[in-house]
Amino acid sequence: MKATGKGWVYDSNGNNVTYVLTNRLLSKDIENLFEIEASPVTFQEEISKDFEVRANIIGQKCIAIKIESQKSEVSSVDWRRYDIKKTPYLQFLLPKAIEEKCFQIYSIFGLEFGAIDLICQPDGKFIFLEVNGNGQFLWAENLSGVKVSDALARLLTGIAPPLRQRTFSCKGGENYV
Question: What are the structural domains, with CATH classification, of the chain?
Fold first, then answer.
């Protein structure tokens, strides 16, 4: 289960109480769904993970960071339960076909910058989770040493080309921009 929207839970005075992260649920946990009918959440089948990837899209550049969340019991369900000492963050090269799909998603939405979260399953199959249009990256840059901010600076100053100038090929042979 993952909270829909911001994920913050407030008390009746409007004060932050807690931030809801992704949680593993059992059947007994959802027997009384009527109790949360006014609280939007997303239920999803659990996906087995080898590791997770934050693919930062910056114009025509994809900078992926591997999050080895499965190395820690603390971060295994949701890497946002940080266990810095046991969860390595590393530069990662996505397979070209997956990288291309990330660019296509951003092109369709007209975005030049952001991040896509992916899961890599033990069999090597990648599962798309979500597009993060605000694409927070500094925490992952600090933990991995991968310079996302340099690529963003190059895009913003016009040194690097924007994604909107790239042409994509479709399976049927047509091209779209």
Answer: 2-42 (no CATH), 51-176 (3.30.470.20)
